[in-house]
Amino acid sequence: MKPAVSFFNTIIKMKKILFLIIIFISASSSFTSGQEKVWSLQECVQYAIDNNIQIKQQALQTMVQENTLLQSKLNLLPTINGQAQHNFSFNRTLDQTTYQYVDQNGQSEQFYVGGNLNLFNGLQNFNTIRRNKYSLLASELDLQTIKDNISLNIALGYLQILLNTELVTTTDNQLQITLQQIEKTKKMYEAGSVARGNLLQIEAQAAGEELQLINLRNQLDISYLTLTQMLELESPEGFRIIAPVISIDTNSAITGDVDDIFVQAQGLRPEIKSAELNLQASELDFKIAQGARSPRLSMSHSASTMYSNIRKKITGFDPVSGDLIYGEYPYSEQLDDNLNYGIGFTLSLPILNGWQVNRNISNSRISIDNYRYNLDAAKKQLYKTIQQAYADAVAALKKFSASVKAVSSMEESFRYTEQKFNVGMVTPVDYNAAKTQLLNAQSDMSQAKYEYIFKTKVLDFYKGLPLNLNQ
After folding, report:
1. Are 138 and 274 in contact, with CB atoms under 8 Å apart?
2. Fewer beta carbons below 10 Å: N end or C end of the chain?
3. Residues with Cβ < 8 Å from 407, sequence gap 6 or more?
């Protein structure tokens, strides 16, 4: 009996150990799934580039341009087409040997292979290949432009979350100070040192700050929702971002000027290069249209053969009657005997085609002017963007420097006012006014800081530097 009892005890222990292992694995899985993924700016940008629908559509358009370029090259090859035909004839059928009709059902087969090769058409094929190369390069640059614009939008959304987070923290800290002040005022009111009106005014201030905090938290939630939508995520649930330590030296200065940055960006920005390539492509369209005035030289080539079951083969001559002697004409022999092939050349001269060639040339010339305007507009837009970002960055730095001084002064002023309020030397109205001024100054400082960061990153981006908040 003892070995049996020992065996069952061992089974029970193993079940307990297995149960504990299962609980541990389940707890570990729950803990892992409950963790939130924290995203950096670089991760957000890369994820958006990999999943954005507009980028995918432009990538498909680029693939279409690749196929168009390849097809224009393949158009230089000769065309070759084949044809096979089987015919049935009933009652009276033409005998291809005697060229007489016979009362017999017949069958015949015909085979043909042929095509054409353009030898010269005003260099239209050559210019089409060059034009399609430029169009492909422009499409690739348009894809990069979309990626850059999305990257900037992601950076703006990322910084908006950081700003709203900082505003929430600042307002929450001020609310905590007000709540502490309510407790102090309650004790002073219960001791009879202040009137009940003072307590009511502080409580009203706390209610206002609590409402402001709720609004800011709602704005923070919306900014998270906006960023996750740009990332094509299904929900902002569990989405959090890394808050890097960002410091700004109030004595710093923006390097370079608008013209220097513009000259540098003009040679780097894909939208400018794309506009230049589209202009070059339109100039080639003009040459293609002009090529339609040129004579066209083409070469045709063909090979054909046929078979008929009615056809007979001349096998001899009857010297008595003077008639030809006919026999069976095998299938393979007919194909060999009827085989013919050759080449031909065609020269066509465009003389009058409803003035279509001239209209195409005129439209191509107009298109060149239009693409030239597009290039000028792209350059002007780039200059305006850099000019605006530069002006905003300078203004934001000035505002931030002034806000830093204002916050420092108002913090000292608020501490002094708070001390006086605690001893009943100032009214709650004066205390609330000082507190509101401090909160507004802190909010202005935060907004100026992130405005300056974004605009300077825009300028760095146009200089060819990657987006990085740690620089």
Report:
1. yes
2. N
3. 438, 441, 442, 445
Residue 15 tokens read as 């079940």
What does the block give as tokens for 270? 């894909």
Indicate the helix (H) or strand (E) that contains 397.
helix 356-422
Q: Using CA atoms, how far apart are residues 355 and 363, in angstroms rounded to an integer?
A: 12
The token pair at 241 is 């971002």
Q: Which of 277, 241, 293 is nearest to 120 (CA)?
A: 293
Q: What are phi and psi of 287, to 5 degrees?
A: -65, -35
Q: What is the DSSP string of 208-220?
A: HHHHHHHHHHHHH
d(CA 286, CA 283): 5
Helix 124-190 / helix 270-291 crossing angle, nearest 10 deg: 160
**One pLDDT digit (tens) per residue for the chain, 471 residues:** 444 444 445 444 554 454 444 444 443 444 333 346 789 999 999 999 999 999 999 999 999 999 999 999 999 999 999 999 998 877 666 666 666 677 677 788 999 999 999 999 999 999 999 999 999 999 999 999 999 999 999 999 999 999 999 999 999 988 898 888 888 888 878 887 777 888 888 888 889 889 999 999 999 999 999 999 999 898 888 899 988 888 787 677 777 789 999 999 999 999 999 999 999 999 999 999 999 999 999 999 999 999 988 777 877 777 777 677 777 888 998 899 889 999 999 999 988 888 899 999 999 999 999 999 999 999 999 999 999 999 998 998 888 889 888 888 888 888 888 888 777 787 888 888 888 888 888 898 899 888 988 988 888 888 888 888 765
- What are the distances in angstroms from CA 327 to CA 150, 315, 317, 330? 82, 6, 12, 9
Q: How many CA atoms lie within 13 A of 11 on its CB side?
A: 6
- Could you give the CA distance from residue 20 to residue 10 in angstroms, rounded to a whole number? 16
Q: Which amino acid is at 392?
A: D
Tokens of 397: 């730095």
Q: Which tokens belong to 29? A: 């899985």
- Report residue 427 as tokens: 């009214």
> What single DSSP character describes residue 425?
S
Q: Under a CB-based contact definition with an 8 Å cutoff, are residues 313 and 145 in contact?
A: no
Q: What is the pTM for the complete model shown?
A: 0.79
Which helix (DSSP H) or strand (DSSP E) does residue 19 occupy?
helix 2-34
Domain extents for the chain?
Answer: 42-77+121-294+350-462
DSSP, collapsed to helix, strand or coil, labels residue 451 as helix
3-state SS class at 233: coil
* Tokens standing for residue 1: 């009996």
From CA 117, how far away is CA 79, in angstroms rounded? 6
**φ, ψ at 89 (rounded to 5°):** -130, 145
